[in-house]
Write a structure and sequence with these properties.
11 helices; 12 strands; 8-stranded mixed β-sheet; 2 domains; alpha/beta; Rossmann fold; globular; 377 residues; 16% strand
């Protein structure tokens, strides 16, 4: 049986079994899952009264390593621009928690994990997940850490969707909710992008009906194509033009159908490096969760947030066309209609959807100022 090649679990990452075969995770769809292991990292020190905890929800291909540099690999945390001493989410002030999602492949239980009842990886027998399942596991992790209430939950993209789900399901547990570059309901175009990416994986002969972990190196071609296409949607036309334009990769065009333009070389690289850090099955399962997400289908969702007094910040970026500002405005309208205390900012950036991962001073100041509101209250 082949072992999935993963990015090494960083030195600061901890593993905990939150659910067992005897006391399994009850999923929203009706299935159960156990045991469930979760990888997580923490930064800073929890206050004696527990009032300074901030929970970080990662995006589609993120992991528990959100901040700092892993001494084993030299890899910086995926949100190291935002989280750390003196940064917008200041670990000198806050106790920050970030887990890897259930269904993922960076230490937490997912479809590439071994099913204890069969002795082989779950593959496509892994149960389908919903956004509320992520929140159930997040809350179990808080119980494990002895944290009863959060100063804030913060997330970008898929992470922002998790925060929104948490705020609608258990608003009494959140003082603040920060939703960045996210959506409350994917458009047909968003679903279409993910559908094509999934088909690239599913139609790769090496996918082997999800049994590739036992038989092959997996759907590497399909995964690379899926990542290349997705990455285009994370950037903006302006950002691509500024970074690459129509420049050739070499001094002169080589012609033909190989990698000729600089942007082609960039996408080829992004597809290649993705193969050794992420699993195709996790990509299928997590993108499907996003497709079905629609928290405001529950007409009382926003009213529950308002009743609990949870304050919300919604941020979009003006060049983001994957989840453009209309997605954020829809969230804001739903929250306002329910009487929620909500702030909204559209941030200027040329870098598209990926802006939420970058150092953009206005964006970071906005997050820092919002988190400081509780100090002034």
């Amino acid at each position: 049986m082949r072992t999935l090649t993963r990015t090494p679990v960083p030195e600061g990452t901890q593993l905990v079994e939150l659910f067992t075969a005897q006391a399994p995770l009850q999923l929203a769809g009706g299935a159960t899952l156990g045991p469930v292991q979760v990888a997580y990292e923490t930064y800073g020190t929890l206050a004696e009264d527990g009032s300074n905890a901030i929970f970080i929800c990662h995006a589609l291909t993120g992991d528990a390593h959100a901040s700092g540099v892993d001494p084993q690999t030299g890899r910086a945390g995926w949100w190291d621009t935002l989280i750390g001493p003196g940064k917008a989410i200041d670990t000198d002030r806050f106790f920050v928690i970030c887990p890897n999602l259930v269904g993922g492949c960076q230490g937490s239980t997912g479809p590439s994990s071994v099913d204890p009842t069969t002795g082989v990886p779950y593959g496509m027998t892994f149960p389908l997940l919903q956004m509320s399942d992520f929140v159930t596991v997040h809350r179990a992790l808080l119980d494990h850490l002895g944290v009863r209430r959060l100063r804030a939950a913060v997330g970008g993209s898929l992470g922002g969707m998790q925060v929104l789900q948490w705020a609608t399901d258990f608003p009494e547990q959140l003082d603040q909710a920060v939703v960045i570059a996210a959506s409350s309901r994917l458009t047909a175009q968003n679903i279409a992008f993910s559908a094509v990416a999934r088909q690239a994986i599913l139609r790769d002969p090496q996918f082997a009906d999800g049994h590739y972990l036992e038989h092959s190196d997996g759907p590497r071609t399909g995964m690379a194509i899926a990542r290349m296409m997705a990455h285009i949607t994370y950037l903006s036309e302006q950002g691509l033009a500024e970074k690459f334009g129509r420049r050739f990769q070499a001094e002169e065009s080589i012609g033909g159908f190989g990698v000729d333009f600089a942007v082609e070389s960039y996408l080829d690289h992004q597809g290649s490096v993705f193969l050794d850090r992420f699993d195709a099955l996790s990509y299928l399962y997590l993108t499907r969760v996003m497709d079905y997400f629609d928290p405001f289908a529950d007409a009382a969702a926003a009213e529950r947030i308002a009743a609990a007094g949870t304050r919300c910040l919604v941020i979009s970026f003006d060049s983001d066309w994957r989840f453009d500002t209309s997605h954020s405005r829809r969230i804001v309208r739903a929250l306002l209609d329910g009487g929620v205390d909500v702030s909204f900012r559209e941030i200027n950036s040329p870098w598209g959807h990926d802006s939420f991962l970058l150092t953009i001073p206005d964006y970071h100041r906005t997050v820092a100022a919002f988190l400081s509101q509780a100090d002034a209250a």
